[in-house]
Design brief:
Keywords: Membrane, Transmembrane, Transmembrane helix. The protein is mainly α. It is 79% helix and 0% strand. The model has no long low-confidence stretch (mean pLDDT 86).
C-alpha cells in the first residue's frame, strides 16, 4: 500500500461569523422595525389608498439610506458613551437608557424623512404638522420596539456582530 500525504488545511477560525450573515441580520432588523414604523407613519400622513404600498416603499427606502445607517452609528456611539458615563450601572439599565434615547431620536428622524417623502417642502406648516402627527402616532410602537430590542435583542446582536 502506498500512503498518501495529507496536506494540512489553512488555519480557519470556524467560529468567525461571515460578514454577509451580519449584514443580513442588520438588514432584517431594519426592515422589520423601520418598515413597521414607517408603514404606520405613512398611514398617518396619507391614509390608505391604492398607492399606499408604493408610498410606504419610497419612504422606507429614503429612511433606509439616510436615517437607519446614521441610527446604527448613533447607537454604537451612544452605547459607548453610556458605558463610560455610567460604568457602575447594570447593563439592562444602560440598555434602557440607550433604547429610550434611540427610540425618540430615530422616531423623530423617520417621521421627518417620511413627511418629506409624502408631503414635500411646499409648506413648512404642513410638513411640521405631518411630522408631528406621525411622530406622536408611532412613538408608542417605537418605544415598545426599542425597549424590547434593547433588553433582549441588542445584547445578542452585539455579541453576534463582534463574532
Amino acid at each position: 500500500m502506498h500512503s498518501q500525504q495529507v496536506m494540512p488545511l489553512p488555519n480557519i477560525d470556524s467560529k468567525k461569523t461571515p460578514v454577509i450573515h451580519k449584514i443580513l441580520v442588520v438588514l432584517a432588523m431594519m426592515t422589520v422595525m423601520g418598515g413597521s414604523l414607517i408603514g404606520l407613519m405613512t398611514y398617518i400622513n396619507l391614509g390608505y389608498s391604492d398607492t399606499f404600498f408604493n408610498d410606504w416603499l419610497m419612504s422606507f427606502l429614503l429612511a433606509a439610506v439616510t436615517v437607519m445607517p446614521a441610527g446604527f452609528i448613533l447607537m454604537a456611539l451612544l452605547t459607548h458613551i453610556v458605558e463610560k458615563w455610567l460604568p457602575n450601572t447594570n447593563e439592562k439599565k444602560r440598555n434602557i437608557i440607550v433604547g429610550l434615547f434611540m427610540a425618540i431620536t430615530m422616531e423623530s428622524a423617520m417621521a421627518l424623512s417620511t413627511a418629506i417623502n409624502n408631503i414635500g417642502f411646499s409648506s413648512q406648516t404642513a410638513l411640521f404638522n405631518h411630522w408631528l402627527e406621525a411622530l406622536l402616532a408611532a412613538l408608542p410602537l417605537g418605544l415598545t420596539l426599542m425597549i424590547i430590542t434593547s433588553l433582549t435583542i441588542k445584547p445578542k446582536i452585539e455579541r453576534f456582530l463582534k463574532s
